[in-house]
Specification:
The complex is a heterodimer of chains A (94) and B (478).
Chain A lengths: L5 E3 L23 E6 L5 H14 L3 E6 L7 H4 L1 H7 L2 E4 L4
Parallel strand pairs in A: 2-3, 2-4
Chain B lengths: L2 E7 L4 H5 L1 H8 L5 E5 L13 E2 L4 H5 L4 E2 L1 E6 L2 E7 L1 E2 H8 L11 E2 L2 E2 L7 H8 L9 E3 L6 H7 L13 H8 L9 E5 L4 E4 H11 L6 H11 L6 H6 L5 E7 L1 H5 L14 H18 L20 E3 L10 H4 L8 E14 L6 H12 L13 E5 L1 H9 L4 H11 L1 E3 H4 L18 E3 L7 E5 L7 E7 L12 E4 L3
Parallel strand pairs in B: 1-2, 2-3, 13-14, 16-19
Antiparallel strand pairs in B: 1-5, 4-9, 5-6, 7-8, 11-12, 13-15, 15-20, 15-21, 16-20, 17-18
Classes of the chains: A alpha/beta (94), B alpha+beta (478).
């Protein structure tokens, strides 16, 4: 008479699509490091000190930012970071 | 192919049983006859070969509305139909000079079983006329559908209405939009979401089909970039989406803007906001403890939706204030926390009440923060009357409140009054408005007739990012 006890899936039906992280490099030698400022208050100061520290080790650093923590890095920086850098350090706060 | 007569009847219909002799007369006539019984294959008992249609497929295919119905087919195509019993019509359709002698000239029939409430959607699903694309999940005979929804992680902690095919079809009947139309990318996983997925989650939330245009507008509103739904979802702050509905649709679907407008008890208020939260959870993947990192959250994250009271013609409703035309139905989405009570039973002039409101508005987020957390002021009828009776309209109230909540930066500076929290010292010599002038304080009217109590709904600290975090308003497509 009815569908029986059949439900319809309310989800995106993606199943488990967790991507495996890339293994971190053995060494940063010769790598380009991205520093992403996510827009939290004073994260620029924190990243300045990280940049200085990495610079003292002879590493190349590139800076990226998004306007606020409420915005998506995908809209502002992710593509450029992926194209231009080897590793990324994100200035996450809280 | 020769011509054919079809009768659809049921034993439970007095007219169908009254005309039982007619079936035998038709069967003895020159035109082949098929009689379909909706409820008892043994009825009518005076002819052979009654077709069992208790499954209602033939009734559904022929779109039978009443029984008895007589249909004439020619080469498989319907060429005539008589509904109920009218001797002249039946004789003409059957091509018989005599039929039903001794019976009343005419007698109305009964409603057909295939159009009983809810049956049409059930039959649409069963006979494949609606292609529901969502994955079908079969439950075992002993599975409790409600518990199954919990086990699959589909709920907000409260039971949901199990999303069966017929319920989804019924929900989709509430919109003219196609089920496979993509509404947008739902955060946080930025997953394409169809109208059908919205309908499924609306079913689970307990919505009625007529709420669908509002639910769809709400979903589209949170996807507007300035609403920053992704950020709102993953913030450690309290906030969640708060929905204000304006316009004729709020009244037509029975939303509450009066007594207990911000509380429980109204289906539309309760389920529209919940549908959004379930959609974010189920389609977007936004789960508390996952990407939802709220330190405490607030009860409004189950649902927080109400309508504005637009009954006073002197008041400019929120939708008009935000640029929409009179008569438009809209939803306004705000990043809301819980309800902060405003109790003032002594102020009698608009000036007094403004100063009083400013005191409470200034504590939104923190007393020493400005241009940070937005807010909604829900003016109750008795408080509004103080303004209205003095001739203050929306613009005047907004202007006066803005002035009353503007304070010296020095008073708000970090460290001032022995409190670390506050504004940067660089603002010490400026006057600092508490709220952004354009969208920082939304004023709406709602509430019961009695009570000098209004409500302040504080907003997200993300509101300090003036250009990227704003309330948004979307027109409801009806």
């Amino acid at each position: 008479m009815s569908e029986g006890y059949a439900l319809r899936d309310p989800t995106a039906e993606l199943g488990s699509t967790k991507r495996q992280r890339l293994a971190p490099p053995e060494s940063l030698d010769g790598r380009v490091v991205a520093l992403l400022d996510i827009g939290k208050e004073r994260s620029d100061e924190f990243l300045d000190s990280i940049e200085a520290m990495l610079g003292s080790r002879g590493l190349r650093v590139r800076r990226y930012s998004k306007p606020s923590p409420t915005t998506l890095s995908a809209d502002y920086a992710s593509s450029a970071i992926a194209a231009e850098c080897d590793v990324v350090i994100e200035g996450l706060a809280d | 192919m020769a011509e054919q007569l079809i009768v659809v009847a049921k034993r439970d219909c007095p007219t169908c049983t009254l005309i039982e002799p007619v079936y035998a007369e038709l069967a003895a006539g020159p035109t082949p006859l098929a009689v379909y019984s909706q409820d008892d294959p043994g009825f009518p008992g005076n002819i052979r070969g009654v077709v069992d249609d208790t499954g209602l497929e033939t009734s559904y295919r022929f779109d039978i509305e009443f029984v008895p119905t007589l249909i004439r087919l020619k080469d498989g195509e319907e060429v005539g139909r008589a509904v109920g019993w009218t001797r002249g019509e039946w004789r003409q359709l059957a091509g018989l000079e005599r039929l039903g002698d001794g019976l009343p000239e005419a007698q109305a029939g009964c409603g057909a079983r295939n159009v009983e409430p809810g049956m049409r959607e059930r039959l649409m699903v069963r006979f494949g006329d609606v292609a529901i694309r969502a994955r079908r999940i079969e439950l075992g005979d002993y599975d409790d559908p409600l518990e199954s929804c919990f086990e699959r992680g589909w709920t907000d902690g409260l039971p949901v209405v199990p999303p069966t095919g017929e319920r989804i079809v019924r929900m989709l009947s509430g919109t003219r939009r196609k089920a496979d139309e993509v509404v947008g990318l739902i955060p946080p996983n930025r997953v394409p979401c169809t109208v059908e997925k919205v309908a499924i989650n609306a079913v689970m939330a307990g919505c009625r089909p007529e709420y669908m245009p509002v639910v769809l507008a709400v979903v589209e509103a949170v996807l507007i970039s300035e609403f920053a739904m992704h950020g709102l979802l993953c913030t450690t702050y309290f906030s969640g989406p708060t929905v204000i509905v304006n316009g004729p649709i709020a009244r037509s679907i029975g939303m509450n803007s009066g007594v207990n407008a911000l509380g429980q008890g109204n289906r539309a208020n309760a389920t529209i906001g919940r549908a959004l939260q379930l959609l974010i959870r189920n389609v977007g993947g936004g789960v508390p403890g996952g990407i939802d990192r709220a330190t405490l959250g607030n009860p409004g994250k189950y649902t927080f939706c109400f309508a504005e009271d637009e009954s006073d013609p002197e008041w400019t409703p929120l939708s008009l204030a935000r640029g929409f035309a009179p008569g438009a139905s809209t939803v306004t989405l705000f990043h809301g926390d819980g309800v902060q009570a405003f109790c003032d039973q002594k102020s009698r002039t608009p000036e007094e009440l403004t100063r009083s409101l400013a005191m409470s508005l200034n504590v939104v987020g923190h007393y020493k923060l400005a241009q940070c957390c937005n807010a909604i002021l829900v003016l109750s009828p008795e408080h509004y009357a103080i303004f209205r009776d003095a001739g203050w309209d929306r613009a005047r109230i907004e202007e006066e409140l803005h002035a009353a909540t503007t304070r010296p930066g020095r008073e708000l500076a970090q460290g001032a009054h022995g409190v670390g929290e506050g504004m940067s010292p660089e603002h010490a010599d400026r006057m600092l408005p508490k709220f952004w002038r354009d969208h920082g304080l939304l004023i709406v009217r709602a509430g019961g007739r009695a009570g000098l109590f209004s409500a302040i709904i504080g907003g997200w600290a993300g509101g300090r990012n003036r250009d990227v975090v704003q309330p948004v308003t979307k027109e409801v497509e009806t």
